[in-house]
């Protein structure tokens, strides 16, 4: 089991484009033994302390294996929409971990 946390930063004014990409990417997770455990859109009131910019969204996803994650990343339907991600996402922090 692997866990992935993403801090996603969006380009100004590209929220709708990002949502179009997510509408394709999110359902594909379950096709590859993955589960979206948490999806958070933090606001200024939910931040207690931060030394980095506030991300647009935070995702916590689990996959049964590293190979399942690689298969998800290579999903042909998802890849057809990567231009939407490239257009809308400024940067992503991807943090891999395991449950302890």
Layout of helices and strands:
Blueprint: E1 2-10, H1 15-31, E2 34-40, E3 57-63, H2 66-73, H3 76-79, H4 82-88, E4 89-97
Antiparallel strand pairs: 1-3, 1-4, 2-3
Helix pairs in contact: 1-4
Explain what you see:
The structure is a single chain. The chain has 100 residues and is an alpha+beta fold. The longest helix has 17 residues, at 15-31. The protein has helices at residues 15-31, 66-73, 76-79, 82-88, and strands at residues 2-10, 34-40, 57-63, 89-97. A four-stranded antiparallel beta sheet has the order 2-3-1-4. It has a single domain, classed as Alpha-Beta Plaits (2-Layer Sandwich).
Q: Label the CATH architecture.
A: 2-Layer Sandwich
Under CATH at level 1, the class stands as: Alpha Beta
Poorly predicted ranges (pLDDT <50, ≥5 residues)?
Answer: none
How would you sum up the major sheet?
4 strands, antiparallel
What is the spatial order of strands in the main beta sheet?
2-3-1-4
Helical segment tally? 4
Structural class: alpha+beta
> How large, in whole angstroms, is the Cα Rg?
14 Å
Strand content: 25-35%
Tell me, what's the shape?
Answer: globular
- Strand-and-helix sequence, N→C? EHEEHHHE
Count every beta strand, where a strand is a DSSP E run of 2 or more residues.
Answer: 4
Count structural domains: 1
The proportion of residues forming helix, as a percent range, comes to 25-40%
**CATH topology label:** Alpha-Beta Plaits
N- to C-terminal distance: 11 Å
Mean pLDDT: 95
